[in-house]
Amino acid sequence: MSPILERIPPEIRLLSNREAVERYVAGADVPSRAITGLSPAQLQAFPVPGTWSIQQIVLHLMDSDFTASYRMKRTIAEDRPHLDAYDESAFEARLGYNQLDPFEACKLFRGNRLLMGAILRNLSENAFDRVALHPENGEMTLGLFVRLYVWHLDHHMRFLCVKRQMVGACRENG
What are the boundaries of each domain within the chain? Predict the structure, then answer.
């Protein structure tokens, strides 16, 4: 099993392609709901020193989802495209995540997920076997990309929820 695939928990890895697409689309509103009611101070707090703030997590989710949708579109449209890697830490450091509006980022995340979801829903089952070549992870299928970004959102939301509690913004329903 490839190292990237090992990161994805079995409950996501074993979804059918259609189930994975629906989970991907269902995540469209998750970041927005997660930051509802937070003050600017809570969004920018660092309750765990040396890690990202809630705002930085949200901006990272937006940027990584944009990158993912670009990669998925290339995998769909091109034959075995060579993809590039990107440095998420450099994005955070140099794009001014602390000065950007996390609520606008959530709107963009939502729109991107919904549009990409429409593309994915219109594909044949065979399309999910299409392959792209990633410089760090090797061959990656479209189906793997969808599952990876279902997991990626879940992964970061766990951190965000813990940080939300740490900044005094607990929720009754998660």
Answer: 3-166
